[in-house]
Amino acid sequence: MKRDKAQPRPPDERTALYERLRWQRQTVRKKAKGLSEADAHRAFLPSPLMTVAGLVSHLRWNEHSWFETCLLGLPDRGPWTDDDPDAEMRVDHVPLARLLDEYDEQCARSVEIADSLPLDALEQAPPPGGEPCSLRWILLHLIEETARHNGHLDIMREFADGVTGE
Residue 21 in contact with residue 142, Cβ under 8 Å? Predict the structure, then answer.
């Protein structure tokens, strides 16, 4: 049986990866929307690092690390050190709005970088002890990483003020 209308085609691989990652990135902002500064910096889980503000900063610096440092081989500008490998999550003094804006700017930079390369482009500077991986792998990894932390954000947001959902 023929259909009168052309069936929609699924998106190509790059578009599908971008759409999933964009949705996860937007969810970070949705989880933080309307949250008080005090709640954004409150540790609701056993780790003092697990705050909404800390996770937003962590996600921002993950974007930098994977796209700029690993993929392009640019200098690592991250705040972490050998003495404090989690420094990017220690942001008690930084307003949540600033952290979200910096995250959005870093995500836009990541998209610019990804747009300039084929999906099979390999990292210029693999992480220490790691094997080289492709832009495709980095996009998939960031979808997973951002989704995992959205789960944390969801829990912390519910603890903060009972807001649940997307």
Answer: yes
Residues 6+ apart with CB under 8 A from 86: 49, 80
pTM of structure = 0.91
Identify the H or E element spanning 13: helix 13-32
In the block, residue with structure tokens 């390999």: 122
Dihedral over alpha carbons 21, 144, 126, 115 (to 10 degrees): -10
pLDDT (tens digit, 9 = 90+) per residue, 18-36?
Answer: 999 999 999 999 999 999 9
CA neighbours within 13 Å on the CB side: how many for 56?
A: 31
**Domains of the chain in sequence order:** 35-76+88-161 (1.20.120.450)
| Segment holding 60, helix H or strand E | helix 52-63
